[in-house]
Design goal:
Length: 271
């Protein structure tokens, strides 16, 4: 089996292009990881990596033996399609869950994204809370959501409610809201721990003055989630620039919407 034929690699190429088209993929901004399916993991089960194992500053036994396709650090999303083997890698978590080996890729001497802590800790949480359904994490530098983090209080309930009020799809697509974090040092263990903690409850996490993380079962759905939230943020910025809201979807109407679409909205955002 040729690894470059994996459907995960095709998806990643396509979505990284979409991200660039949106203007979210400046330079090496953003990173993506995918927990491979059993079928895609199979070629690596018996293989030994030629490289030395990299230790993790934490243990995630929930992910022991799992393999992930991960974008490399410093990789420009616009170059992934042309240079997949240089830009991407497949890493396998060891049997204790406290280190990983590179099984394929990073062919020009690269290594996984600097945001590995946020990705792996969040995968561990989402695997548990979604009963194995969520496999993908996308981190990207969404222009409008970042802008919004300068003008709204950095509060999960406030930002969730403001986005829900912009269009009906928001509550339908992310009833679990958007978890909001203060600015933290990119690539740090602390940002990874705080992110994974919020991932217990939310599939979208806003990193103030930096970007967004989204998770879900496949690339398409995660990209859709992120683009919906960023479109709502864009509209909110336009509404603010046009002098502010004169009317909006009310709390009662949001409740009606939740009932009609049988979703359970984040309580603190709908009081
Ligand atoms: P990497 O190039 O290490 O993936 O970092 C990009 C980024 O967006 C950091 O938050
Ligand atoms: Zn980033």
């Amino acid at each position: 089996m040729n690894i470059l034929d994996f459907s995960s690699i095709d998806d990643l190429k396509r979505i990284s292009r979409e991200i660039c088209n949106k203007g979210w993929g400046e330079a090496n901004g953003g990173n993506i990881s995918i927990r491979l399916t059993g079928e895609e993991q199979a070629p690596f089960q018996e293989l030994q990596s030629a490289d030395e194992e990299t230790s993790l500053p934490f243990a995630i036994p929930e992910l022991a033996g799992e393999s992930f396709l991960v974008t490399g650090t410093g990789v420009f999303f616009r170059n992934i399609s042309a240079f997949p083997q240089e830009s991407l890698g497949i890493v396998r978590i060891n049997s204790r869950g406290d280190g990983y080996s590179t099984m394929w890729g990073y062919s020009a001497g690269g290594r996984p994204t600097s945001e590995m802590s946020a990705h792996l800790l969040s995968h561990a949480v989402r695997k548990k809370v979604s009963s194995g359904r969520d496999r993908v994490i996308i981190h990207t530098h969404t222009t409008n959501l970042i802008a919004l983090s300068f003008v709204l209080p950095l509060d999960t309930a406030v930002i969730t409610r403001e986005l829900w009020e912009m269009m009906s799809e928001c509550l339908m697509l992310f009833p679990d809201g958007i978890g909001v974090m203060d600015w933290m040092v990119p690539g740090s263990l602390d940002i990874g721990l705080a992110t994974s903690h919020l991932m217990e409850k939310h599939r979208l996490i806003l990193w103030a003055h930096h970007g967004i993380l989204g998770t879900g079962p496949n690339m398409e759905q995660v990209f859709g989630l992120i683009e919906t939230a960023d479109k709502a943020a864009e509209m909110l910025l336009k509404v603010m620039a046009a002098g502010g809201k004169k009317q909006a979807i009310s709390a009662g109407q949001l409740r009606e919407l939740a009932e009609a679409f049988n979703v359970d909205p984040l309580k603190e955002a709908i009081t």
